[in-house]
């Protein structure tokens, strides 16, 4: 995480969480870590659905394909920072079976989020990430799916990094 955020940002966040004046909590409902843990799998799920459907969100190529996005369903999963409420995307045909956050799974390993961010931050290739997912989680994902997921995760991390911070 230090590679992505830098020491100054981490120090500022830690200071704001200690003094109680910054209104920033590290863990628990609505916390900094909880929101990041929520955002990463939600982005990954959206990327997974795009790979499943064969087109991205709002892509005109999806018109008339016979299957499309069909909203989201709420799901609470246990994570390393506590329970997190996810919005899991659905497809109209009901054929989307999420791999990274499987149906009926009540727990997300904190290692999954950490691994996706870490592998991408360390410049690993899609093939290397695919190998790690297969070895650790027994998950088989295509190169395209992994690329979409890592792109979505990096986008979320950059958005989180660039968010405005209140003065301490």
UniProtKB/TrEMBL annotation:
Family, per entry: Belongs to the transposase mutator family.
Q: Can you tell me which residues the record assigns to a coiled coil?
A: none
Annotated spans, Disordered: 53-76
Q: Say which domain of life the source belongs to.
A: Bacteria
Cite the entry's keywords alphabetically: DNA recombination, DNA-binding, Transposable element, Transposition
Please state what the protein is called.
Mutator family transposase
Spell out the InterPro entries in the cross-references: Transposase_mutator
Q: What does this protein do?
A: Required for the transposition of the insertion element.
Q: Which Pfam families does the entry mention?
A: Transposase_mut (PF00872)
